[in-house]
Amino acid sequence: xxxxxxxxxxxxxxxxxxxxxxxxxxxxxxxxxxxxxxxxxxxxxxxxxxxxxxxxxxxxxxxxxxxxxxxxxxxxxxxxxxxxxxxxxxxxxxxxxxxxxxxxxxxxxxxxxxxxxxxxxxxxxxxxxxxxxxxxxxxxxxxxxxxxxxxxxxxxxxxxxxxxxxxxxxxxxxxxxxxxxxxxxxxxxxxxxxxxxxxxxxxxxxxxxxxxxxxxxxxxxxxx
Length: 224
Known about the structure:
Blueprint: H1 2-11, E1 15-16, H2 17-24, H3 28-36, E2 54-55, H4 57-72, H5 77-91, E3 102-104, E4 109-113, E5 115-118, E6 124-126, E7 138-142, E8 145-148, E9 163-165, E10 174-176, E11 181-182, H6 183-191, H7 196-203, H8 207-223
């Protein structure tokens, strides 16, 4: 029963395309292209709902991984599609991007299966060091359960993991990690000129947590 529930909230439509794009840090039109395709070009991933476009938490994580491949590794989409085709035959899952940890040499895509399989070349084995800052922002907590730490300012490995998104907490909206305290509530009170130090006392968290929530919502609102 617990597994069924976790799978349900993992797949439940929860984020409009605009909200998901802001959470992941990509242009809205890029997200639409990935989820809906364009003309004769099929989508890369399958959204929870297509009309209107609404993403699940699983879709949110897929977009985060795709963003890593697009920006960190500069992979062309045809290579990503080729890799996904191979992964689908290996995993038989709806979300092959989330089936395993990915790494790349900048040309091909790899999946961690003990040794690293070069999936974009049809499954040749290759030993590679897995170093992926983006995937370290996803914390798997059991079958069908995960927590996502979005990048607030930079994509640097030292970026704090203070803001988290978990489909089982606050309806999947962003919170101060480990508290369930809404970042939107904190930011709205700050914009109403309440003192961050007093907010930290009231919510029993650190001032760093408060300022990170404000910073995140500021970036989020700027991107809106």
